[in-house]
């Protein structure tokens, strides 16, 4: 008889523990208040346009609401103030892509800080995401001028005789303030 009672107590304790763990599954610090998670981040070197940008992609974890915006602050590789963009979040899209303005002075294997705030229609911060981004290339891989000048991919006449896009004596970006 005591063995049966002991077995019932153990089974009951296991059920209580399982129910407790199941109830806590989505309420821990990791999941609390999270609306988005980072699904991708990269440095885009667009050789055709001779420009580089940072791109961060967010995946929604919950349904998005009308009026939400994402504000991203990108560390400026050239030094100085961070580069800030604000972008409306479209609830029907399955992802949010945030792209920095054109950058210069990107250094290979150097981490660059990115801070993202998700705000509601009234401007209240719903979530903050901090991350870093590193490039496997540096700015020197880009041509000095855009390789094409229009949407028809017309070759840039400034680069005639320079198929690699490098012009002898072309001015380089001032990277003296880069950290």
CATH architecture descriptor text of the domain at 37-157: Sandwich
Number of strands: 7
Query: Main sheet?
Result: 4 strands, antiparallel
For the biggest β-sheet, the strand order reads 4-3-6-7
The parts where pLDDT drops under 50 for at least 5 residues are: 19-29
Order of helices and strands: HEEEEEEE
Query: Total number of helical segments?
Result: 1
Shape: elongated
Terminal Cα span? 75 Å
Instruction: Report Rg.
Output: 25 Å
Strand content: 25-35%
Class derived from helix and strand content? alpha+beta
Here the CATH topology of the domain at 37-157 equals Immunoglobulin-like
Can you tell me the CATH class of the domain at 37-157?
Mainly Beta
Helix content: 10-25%
The CATH homology group name of the domain at 37-157? Immunoglobulins
Arithmetic mean of pLDDT = 86
């Amino acid at each position: 008889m005591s063995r049966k009672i002991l077995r019932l107590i153990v089974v009951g304790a296991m059920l209580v523990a399982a129910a407790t763990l199941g109830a806590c599954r989505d309420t821990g610090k990791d999941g609390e208040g999270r609306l988005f998670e980072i699904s991708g981040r990269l440095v885009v070197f667009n050789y055709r346009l001779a420009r580089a940008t940072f791109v961060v992609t967010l995946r929604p974890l919950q349904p998005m609401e009308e009026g939400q915006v994402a504000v991203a602050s990108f560390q400026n590789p050239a030094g100085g103030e961070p580069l800030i963009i604000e972008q409306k979040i479209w609830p029907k899209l399955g992802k949010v892509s945030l792209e920095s303005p054109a950058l210069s002075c990107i250094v290979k294997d150097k981490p660059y800080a990115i801070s993202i705030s998700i705000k509601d229609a009234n401007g209240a911060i719903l979530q903050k995401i901090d991350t870093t981004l590193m490039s496997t290339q540096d700015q020197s891989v880009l041509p000095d001028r855009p390789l094409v000048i229009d949407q028809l991919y017309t070759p840039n006449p400034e680069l005639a005789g320079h198929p690699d896009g490098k012009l002898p004596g072309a001015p380089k970006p001032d990277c003296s303030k880069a950290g």
